[in-house]
């Protein structure tokens, strides 16, 4: 096998490295560490952090990609399968390979649909055929017989990536432009305010839709650049994150601008300026640390919204690649099956429950982070 | 105030121009008319002649910014930018890629959109604020704690769940309302009820929590303590003083979206089969009709800017200290 590094994998691991460096730097600084200790002291904080950590572990396992080596043909160089697998696929091989013919209910022993079967006595009857792997599908199987639990686990990575990579794009823009607008004021402020009012005034879904359509056309036009379907889906995911980041920085930037407007009049900033400290250094050393709590709170709060947004965008048809595993695609594929009799509910239920647990954990964690970091919250919200 | 508003209108022009340039860049420079023609013709029938024909049929056969073939002022005006983008400023939306008049579609589809958006908006606002006041009134009790937990749980559920679950329960299982569809006239309410109820439920968690936080912030201020010290009852403080003072942040979030109600809701309308502007937009996205998407982007931005202006005006009504100069 050969390892495959998709762009999104690289960015995700880069982000992870960044978080580790940050934690390492905070190691001996009590004033930075204490709020987090406070978060981890509460039972809600511990529980939600644990759930989030489990989700991230699955997502990271699913980001270690490789391609299997095909059986050697004598006289030819080694060939590799076009299918990109991940460490999670390898761990979940039994789930992945136990494929049925079509729908089957959770833990069922027989298929959802009737078929013409030949009994032992040679007479043909319409009946539910037995499953190939009866009782092993904890959450049932989907239309093409794939295990729903496996699909749900695979969807986690997409949700996390959308949350994480969008933040990665949005953060530098929001930080740079928000603080600059607040600190420099005047012409700089005017321009930045103009840019974010313009971006804000465009209905978000439409801008995302427009950009994704454009990317789709471009990917189709340059299909030769991508050697696997996974690489193609990956580019679309990155484009989605990029455009959501490019449109999503305005809220945080506005918040930071307001805060910096207040901060720049305070004595420590005035003193730094009087000492002749250069503006960039004031921004980085004096202003940035003092707005960091706002940044952290917004990032954690936005994360859950982004996971939910993925499902909606996939429904509109401008989300991730239709072939990619994601909660949105799972819901989209199953929503019409509620009209069937008996109801095919397990695929929808699995997608919604997984999403609910992830988003609830993120929301609860965000609340605790805000209580710990925001001096105004004071534990009352 | 008139002076101020006039200045705001003038300020709106560069913003709309920016929106126009951005969408123009996206749709015409990154994604050229040739690409558009290819999408609509399909892979099989793509020949240079077919592309040229499609472009001239739909008016895409002009240069982007400068037309060298004609003389005089037409050099600048007889271009795609003027034709497709600047004309939006006089609400000349032109025809969609399948040849229908966009302006007429917008006019006829506005009604159904508003029929859902307006009740949702006003009933929602009233009930969310009432819930929030209730929680604020019982702050610190287990009712408040339970309410907040419920809100967090409700806002962690995907919006699609409310729609699909609502359709399944109210439409399929209980047969209260038709699952989807639309009928103008007296029976319209049957088709309106479910989308409105679903949107209301979907918004409870987020909004109630937001308003509760606003009210609690006000509750901690000095004027509340003064009012209480003078012997005012809790209810009176809450309704007269806190609600009044929380009006500015409430209006900030509310008035901006008011004009945009025209555009309807993408998800709700398409799930419930309402022929409004939301489902129009979603159909356009799915059939890659860029002319409609561009018109809706412009209309959305325009309405947003109107909303910003209305917000400023509403401040003067809510707070006599605010003067627009």
Account of the 3D structure:
The complex is a heterodimer of chains A (381) and B (325). Chain A has 381 residues and is mainly alpha-helical. Among the domains of chain A are: 106-136, no CATH class; 145-366, MetI-like fold. In chain A, the strands form two sheets. Chain A has a three-stranded antiparallel beta sheet with strand order 1-2-3. The longest helix of chain A is centred in the C-terminal third of the chain and has 38 residues, at 279-316. Helices cover 65% and strands 6% of the residues of chain A. The mean pLDDT of chain A is 87. Chain B has two domains: 2-90, no CATH class; 102-324, MetI-like fold. Chain B has helices at 2-30, 33-41, 48-57, 74-77, 80-85, 102-137, 142-155, 159-173, 188-219, 222-229, 234-245, 247-254, 266-272, 277-286, 290-318. In chain B, helix 8 packs across helix 9 (188-219). The model of chain B has no long low-confidence stretch (mean pLDDT 86).
Could you write a compact summary of the structure shown?
The complex is a heterodimer of chains A (381) and B (325). Chain A is mainly alpha-helical.
């Amino acid at each position: 096998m050969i390892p495959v590094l998709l762009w999104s994998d690289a960015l995700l691991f880069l982000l992870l490295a960044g978080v580790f460096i940050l934690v390492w730097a905070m190691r001996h600084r009590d004033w930075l560490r204490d709020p987090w200790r406070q978060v981890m002291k509460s039972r809600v904080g511990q529980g939600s952090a644990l759930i989030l950590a489990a989700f991230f572990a699955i997502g990271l396992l699913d980001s270690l990609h490789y391609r299997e080596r095909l059986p050697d043909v004598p006289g030819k160089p080694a060939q590799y399968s076009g299918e990109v697998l991940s460490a999670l696929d390898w761990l979940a091989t039994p789930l992945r390979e136990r494929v049925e013919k079509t729908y089957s209910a959770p833990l069922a022993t027989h298929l959802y649909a009737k078929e013409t079967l030949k009994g032992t006595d040679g007479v043909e009857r319409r009946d539910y055929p037995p499953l190939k792997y009866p009782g092993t599908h904890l959450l049932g199987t989907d239309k093409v017989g794939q295990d729903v639990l496996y699909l749900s686990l695979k969807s986690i990575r997409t949700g996390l990536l959308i949350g994480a990579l969008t933040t990665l794009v949005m953060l530098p823009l929001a930080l740079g432009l928000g603080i600059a607008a607040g600190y420099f004021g005047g012409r700089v402020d005017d321009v930045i305010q103009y840019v974010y009012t313009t971006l804000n005034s465009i209905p978000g879904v439409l801008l995302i839709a427009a950009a994704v359509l454009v990317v789709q056309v471009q990917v189709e036009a340059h299909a030769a650049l991508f050697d696997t379907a996974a690489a193609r889906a990956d580019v679309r995911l990155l484009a989605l994150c990029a455009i959501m980041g490019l449109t999503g920085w305005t809220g945080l930037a506005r918040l930071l601008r307001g805060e910096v407007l207040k901060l720049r009049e305070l004595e420590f900033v005035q003193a730094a300026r009087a000492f002749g400290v250069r503006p960039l250094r004031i921004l980085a050393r004096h202003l940035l640390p003092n707005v960091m709590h706002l940044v952290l709170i917004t990032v954690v709060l936005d994360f859950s919204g982004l996971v939910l947004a993925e499902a909606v965008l996939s429904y509109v048809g401008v989300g991730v690649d239709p072939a990619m595993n994601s909660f949105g695609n799972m819901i989209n594929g199953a929503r019409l099956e509620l009209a069937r009799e008996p109801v095919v509910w397990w695929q929808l239920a699995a997608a919604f429950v997984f999403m609910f647990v992830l988003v609830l954990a993120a929301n609860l964690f965000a609340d605790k982070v805000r209580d710990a970091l925001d001096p105004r919250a004071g534990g009352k919200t | 105030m008139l002076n101020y508003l006039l200045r705001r209108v003038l300020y709106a022009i560069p913003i709309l121009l920016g929106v126009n340039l951005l969408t123009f860049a996206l749709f015409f420079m990154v994604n050229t008319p040739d690409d558009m023609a290819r999408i609509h013709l399909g892979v099989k029938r793509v020949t240079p002649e077919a592309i040229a024909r499609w472009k001239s049929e739909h008016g895409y056969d002009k240069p982007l910014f400068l037309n060298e073939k004609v003389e005089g002022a037409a050099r600048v005006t007889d271009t795609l930018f003027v034709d497709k983008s600047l004309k939006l400023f006089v609400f000349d939306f032109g025809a969609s890629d399948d040849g229908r008049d966009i302006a007429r579609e917008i006019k006829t589809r506005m009604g159904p959109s508003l029929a859902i958006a307006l009740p949702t908006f006003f009933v929602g606002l009233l009930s969310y604020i009432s819930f929030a006041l209730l929680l604020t009134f019982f702050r610190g009790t287990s009712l408040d704690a339970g309410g907040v937990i419920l809100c967090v749980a409700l806002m962690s559920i995907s919006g699609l769940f409310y729609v699909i679950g609502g359709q399944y329960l109210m439409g399929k299982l209980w047969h209260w309302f038709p699952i989807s569809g639309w009928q103008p006239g007296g029976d319209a309410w049957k088709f309106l009820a479910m989308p409105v109820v679903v949107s209301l439920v979907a918004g409870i968690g987020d909004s109630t929590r937001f308003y509760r936080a606003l009210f609690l912030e006000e509750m901690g201020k000095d004027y509340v303590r003064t009012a209480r010290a003078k012997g005012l009852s809790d209810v009176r403080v809450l309704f007269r003083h806190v609600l009044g003072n929380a009006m500015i942040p409430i209006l900030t979030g509310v008035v901006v979206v008011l004009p945009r109600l025209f555009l309807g809701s993408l998800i709700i309308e398409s799930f419930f089969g309402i022929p409004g502007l939301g489902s129009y937009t979603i159909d356009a996205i799915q059939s890659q009709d860029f002319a409609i998407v561009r018109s809706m982007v412009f209309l959305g931005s325009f309405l947003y800017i109107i909303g910003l202006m209305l917000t400023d005006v509403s401040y003067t009504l809510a707070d006599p200290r605010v003067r627009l100069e």
